[in-house]
């Protein structure tokens, strides 16, 4: 099976000898950086602190895992520029799905570029992560700068990628597809190793019992934020897809749902002030029996730019409006509704914002979490196999 276990592929694991100064926490404050990007207006980046963020003391280990070692170990850096720069995918034939993370280019002895996949959402996320890290370790978060990104850059890259090589399909299953090992029709043989400049996708394509063309599609890069919506639009315009199912993870805004004990789904999303509602093809399948609905919970989801904006004040505001929080579903749902594509999501509840202790985003590579998630992915696979049969019969 292509792809390492989800826990290994979702995070950049970094060890560091640095520790928070004993006087850091009292002096930390919630800062706001005005970041000028010509194609994005002037977005505001929240720099999280343990005193105000829902992760509390788990904020530091979460952030450290996602900051490049060069930034951590070189104290004399005076400028960190977040850029959108695709990697040389033709050289990455053995790379796992969802395993690529930003790289660093040294411009001079004091300046580095943090090269992200060219997605505005992802670049904002990493700018927030790096700035939060610097603030936590009493370094100057003001040295983080975002390089302007053309609003169509991601669209062009996806359009020119190897996605079109998949051919026409009826159903696409996208996202954390590494773990769907029991899906009917799935094998150990993946496609997409064409060594082209933008061969960023890996897939398996098969025909279901009633001649539905199905593709299970993974991306080498993080499918983050607005990228999800761009991919759905490409699936529709290039591959004529009729239905898309997204597999990933989310946080719970309800105290009821424990970390790594539930699968979340829904038919309503909040995105940048918009409310998006749709009819989900998974609903009839989940309602078929208690066995299908086991460990599945439904509710509205709010899509945010980064987990670092999830402060305690934010949680108090949103807990009465939404059950789940993530960074992609709203974008994908919006594109699906606009294009008339059926859409559904099945996502692991990775953390509970009310209860950061125990299993959370800072320790999701632990054997306990991996074992718990396998149970949930097996249940997702059972639901998807039933969906295939239902779509076959329609």
Defining traits:
29% helix; Rossmann fold; four-stranded mixed beta sheet; eleven-stranded mixed beta sheet; disordered N terminus; globular
What does this structure look like?
The chain is of the alpha/beta class and about 400 residues long. It has two domains: about 5-150, no CATH class; about 155-394, Rossmann fold (3-Layer(aba) Sandwich). Helix content is about 30%, strand content about 25%. The protein has helices at about 5-10, 25, 60-65, 70-75, 120-135, 155-160, 225-240, 280-285, 290-295, 310-320, 330-340, 365-394, and strands at about 30-35, 45, 80-85, 105-110, 110-115, 145, 170-175, 200-205, 215-220, 245-250, 265, 270, 275, 295-300, 300-305, 325, 340-350. The strands form three sheets. Strands 7, 8, 9, 10, 11, 12, 13, 14, 15, 16 and 17 form an eleven-stranded mixed sheet that branches. It has a four-stranded mixed sheet with strand order 4-5-3-6, covered by helices on one side. It has a two-stranded antiparallel sheet with strand order 1-2. A hairpin with a 2-residue loop joins strand 12 (about 270) and strand 13 (about 275). Helix 6 (about 155-160) runs parallel beside helix 7 and helix 7 (about 225-240) packs parallel to helix 11. The longest helix has 27 residues, at about 365-394. The two termini are about 30 Å apart. Residues about 1-40 have low confidence and may be disordered.
